[in-house]
Amino acid sequence: PSARLCASKPDAVSPYAQQGTDAHSLCEYLLLTALGRNAKDPTEELTYYDEEMQSCAESYRDFCLEQIADAKKTCADPFVSVEQRLNFSRWVPEGFGTGDCVIVSDSLLHIVDFKYGLGVLVSAAKNTQLMCYALGAYDTFGSLYPIDRVKLSIFQPRREHFDTYEMPLSELLTWADEVLVPAARLAIEGNGDFKAGDHCQFCKVKATCRERASYNMDLARYEFTNPDLLDDADISEILSRVDSLVSWASDVKEYALTQALAGKHYEGFKVVEGRSTRKYSDEEKVIEVVEHAGF
């Protein structure tokens, strides 16, 4: 049901999301250029362009070219598409996504996904996002190529992580019918059960979700326990969820502050101006600059 809740909320563009968008634009340009296709250099329009982004994008380009070269070993003329819109609404109503690089050869459908983020290590194994993309690609190109295998690749250079997973097409289609379709039906209807976990960090209602609050407040039973009195099982449980607890608490505080600045009143709290004590890290440099200015 969180899908319907999130759909009702506006998108908020974070610096991290903008970084990812910039990196994808650069990746698209470099790969298209390497394939001999026309593309406009976006670097002057990118907000977060730097040497690291250039290096990561070049590595992604090279990775994709390697995958294309592998496909040509068994198929003289594989289909290669960059930033391909993929429609999988046959299984998920209004479902679509964008494949960063889609390679279709005589027997193999390969989806390559570029991840610029540092926070979460993304695995290719049974990756449901890429499996949905593969369904969209199969629905579009399956009548043109005798596809029987599907390959999913994650390229996450800032984590030095490159992961690939391969599965039979029949397994993908079985998953689509038996798992994806029923789940999508529940989501469209707003039914089913909420499920809290690490994925909550990407949810638009993460600060006010009762399921997430209940999930994290479950640790409150240890609140006044001396750590020396906890057994190993207790400590293991706390350690496995403490990062999620800290993240949730920060999200609630940030949400409350935003609401308070907009006029919301929370009993027992008020908004006050913060104080910060600043100190020059290099006083000699300050003196030099001030004297140079004529003081």
Give a concise summary.
With 295 residues, the protein is an alpha+beta fold. Helix content is 44%, strand content 14%. The longest helix has 30 residues.
What structural class do you assign from the helix and strand content? alpha+beta
Count of alpha and pi helical runs: 8
Mean pLDDT, to the nearest integer, reads 90
What gross morphology would you assign?
globular
Q: Strand percentage, roughly?
A: 5-15%
**What is the end-to-end distance?**
65 Å
Share of residues in helices:
40-55%
* Low confidence ranges: none
**Biggest β-sheet, characterized?**
5 strands, mixed
What is the alpha-carbon Rg in Å? Answer: 25 Å
Strand neighbour order, sheet with most strands: 1-2-3-4-5
Give helix and strand order, one letter per element, not per position.
HHHEEEHEEHHHH
What's the count of strands?
A: 5
